[in-house]
Write a structure and sequence with these properties.
This protein has 216 residues and is of the alpha+beta class. It has one domain. It is 34% helix and 38% strand. A six-stranded antiparallel β-sheet has the order 2-3-4-5-7-6. A hairpin with a 2-residue loop joins strand 2 and strand 3. The model has no long low-confidence stretch (mean pLDDT 87).
Length: 216
């Protein structure tokens, strides 16, 4: 299934704001506090749209577990269909023109086998041989690690979003990060009131660097 066009996305966003006018007030209040809140309904919409692909996670559930983000999904892995549930906590973010690193912790990981109980992976899960309290160690030994996964150990994973090919090759994105990141960066990401709130920190003393990046 084709991904929704920008026109469809704008129409969906306009319809959502019409039904939820309080979001406009929240945006204005957040701007004064250098905070931008993303409704979890928006993430649910994108998860449903992306879930139409044959390899994409299915039946995704997204919920706020302050300050973390609760996720539950059905995935296909190594011949088995699994139901995976977890809570994600964003511990650190480092954004610049060369990288966009997100350090996250995975807690409360739970994996159930739905289909393919005779596979080696299913056997490991059902026997309890896999240490689900340290999911990072499991991800580190994945045969096909995602390109953006740069580190995984214990319950901690580090993702670099700029290692995604579409972003890595997008000169406009990298240039924009080079201009914005010196003076405005991400301080924290937390959930609250069914929103994913991105808190920013400003450093006016580095405006010169931003100006130099804009004119180079």
């Amino acid at each position: 299934m084709a991904r929704p066009s920008p026109k469809v996305l704008l129409k969906t966003a306009a319809s959502y704001l019409k039904s939820h006018p309080e979001e406009l007030v929240r945006v204005v209040r957040g701007a004064f506090g250098l905070r931008f809140g993303v409704p979890l309904d928006a993430l649910r919409y994108f998860a449903a749209e992306m879930g139409q692909g044959s390899r994409a996670p299915k039946d995704v559930i997204i919920e706020a577990r302050p300050p973390g983000l609760g996720l539950e999904m059905t995935v296909r892995a190594m011949g088995s269909t699994l139901r995976v549930a977890m809570t994600l906590f964003a511990d650190e973010l480092e954004v610049g023109p060369e990288h966009a690193k997100v350090t996250a912790r995975i807690a409360d990981l739970n994996v159930k086998v739905l289909e393919g109980e005779d596979t080696p992976l299913a056997g490991l899960i059902k026997s309890g041989a896999l240490d689900l309290s340290k999911p990072g160690n499991l991800m580190a030994y994945m045969p096909k690690r995602p390109e953006m996964l740069v580190e995984a150990i214990d319950d901690r994973v580090v993702l670099d979003l700029l290692k995604l090919p579409k972003l890595a090759q997008n000169g406009k994105v990298r240039r924009a990060l080079g201009i914005v990141s010196p003076v405005l960066n991400v301080a924290a990401v937390r959930t609250r009131d069914d929103h994913l709130d991105v808190h920013f920190k400003a450093d006016p003393s580095r405006i010169g660097e931003a100006f130099q990046a804009a004119t180079s």
